[in-house]
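Exercise 7b. Backbone tokens:
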């Protein structure tokens, strides 16, 4: 999910209180209270503190209609998970598919996709990022509830797991067993770990709120449609937004991971691993928003590919895999946003995965397995692959912060 966040000043349930965001004193105070609680003799109450912190954050964002929508969105999966918890003998059955279909429908409504926008007065965070990350955790719980009998489950744990401050802000998509393991670690870290966590928080604040904004305004595609735009402007537009997006998104992740680790909670997953050094689009998605990539592979790509390959002749395995990739990335694009430019982004990324994989298979057949390994090991060709992948990624990112019409119109004017 992109992390291009805007924090509107709309009225919340608490009049006169500004939205509690990572660059505000209110958020830092809230995070500080969680750290003090984790370091105190009352650390066993950290779960309650985490749920309370989430509630306070939401109270600074939500209006009554937003709160009702969020409560409806949270209620159904909790009740189903409560019923299915540990019932391995049933595996969930049709009830899982029913609740997933219902929850996805609610997601489309509260995110205000054009064909489902029946509650047009919803505000942040229900229509933006938080609800997306909540949905991923809900799907995980609903699907895996029959097999999680060894873990404790309660409404308080469900609330803290689905709407904790780090879920709402940066959303590293965590599994429930990992969340429970993190709660078991709550306490004061070693001095060296405290320094690392504090350093990471400061780095995140600088990346997200000081450096990243420098690149946002110059990266608008419409800057190429003005008189006098030249090659330098084109490069700024092409590379500016990817730089902004990485600094902004990874900065948010640094803040929440650092805050969690100050509490001794070390199981929050990482989201980035030098993504712009990827050698092909498939490699990129193992490095960029990694928790999302793992989730989409586990709950969408793998079951869909297995379903299609099982029902098609063996000679069509490659075609079935290509279809799975394109459908998966269509969903990736649609999840990123509600307009057509996000779908274009997803399909371009999916096409890149299919084409690069197809080229790799063709080259291996052409030159042989041993020669192919030699080619892959070539440093020069590795850097060439990185350059091609990086520029392809930057080109597709044009559709994340600009509409399809703006991209086509601006490039047409620039190249005319």
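Sequence design result:
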């Amino acid at each position: 999910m992109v992390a291009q966040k805007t924090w509107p000043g709309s009225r919340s349930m608490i009049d006169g209180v500004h939205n509690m965001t990572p660059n505000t004193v209110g958020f830092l105070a809230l995070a500080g209270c969680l750290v003090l609680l984790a370091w105190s003799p009352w650390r066993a109450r950290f779960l309650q503190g985490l749920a309370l912190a989430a509630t306070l954050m939401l109270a600074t964002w939500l209006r009554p209609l937003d709160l009702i929508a969020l409560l409806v969105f949270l209620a159904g999966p909790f009740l189903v998970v409560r019923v299915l918890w540990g019932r391995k003998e049933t595996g969930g059955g049709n009830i899982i598919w029913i609740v997933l279909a219902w929850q996805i429908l609610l997601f489309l409504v509260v995110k205000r996709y054009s064909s489902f926008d029946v509650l047009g007065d919803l505000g942040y965070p229900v229509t933006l990022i938080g609800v997306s990350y909540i949905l991923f955790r809900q799907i995980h719980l609903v699907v895996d509830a029959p097999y999680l009998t060894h873990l404790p489950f309660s409404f308080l744990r469900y609330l803290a797991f689905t709407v904790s401050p780090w879920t709402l802000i940066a959303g590293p998509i965590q599994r429930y067993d990992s969340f429970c393991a993190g709660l078991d670690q709550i306490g004061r870290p070693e001095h060296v770990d405290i320094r690392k966590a504090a350093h990471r928080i400061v780095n995140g604040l600088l990346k997200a709120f000081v450096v990243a904004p420098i690149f946002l305004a110059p990266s608008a595609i419409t800057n190429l449609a003005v008189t006098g735009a030249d090659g330098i402007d084109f490069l700024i537009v092409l590379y500016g937004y990817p730089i902004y997006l990485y600094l902004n998104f990874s900065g948010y992740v640094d803040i929440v991971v650092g805050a969690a680790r100050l509490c001794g909670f070390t199981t929050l997953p990482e989201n980035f691993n030098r993504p712009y050094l990827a050698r092909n689009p498939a490699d990129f998605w193992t490095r960029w928003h990694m928790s999302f990539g793992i989730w989409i592979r586990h709950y969408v790509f793998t079951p869909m590919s297995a379903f299609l390959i099982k029902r098609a002749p063996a000679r069509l395995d490659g075609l079935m895999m290509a279809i799975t990739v394109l459908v998966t990335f269509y969903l990736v694009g649609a999840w990123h946003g509600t307009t057509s430019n996000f779908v274009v982004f997803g399909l371009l990324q999916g096409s890149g995965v299919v084409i690069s994989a197809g080229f790799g298979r063709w080259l291996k057949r052409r030159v042989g397995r041993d020669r192919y390994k030699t080619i892959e090991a070539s440093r020069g060709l590795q850097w060439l692959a990185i350059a091609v992948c990086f520029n392809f990624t930057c080109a597709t990112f044009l559709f994340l912060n600009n509409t399809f019409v703006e991209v086509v119109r601006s490039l047409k004017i620039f190249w005319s």
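Instructor comment: The chain has three domains: 25-181, 191-271, 276-415. The radius of gyration is 23 Å.
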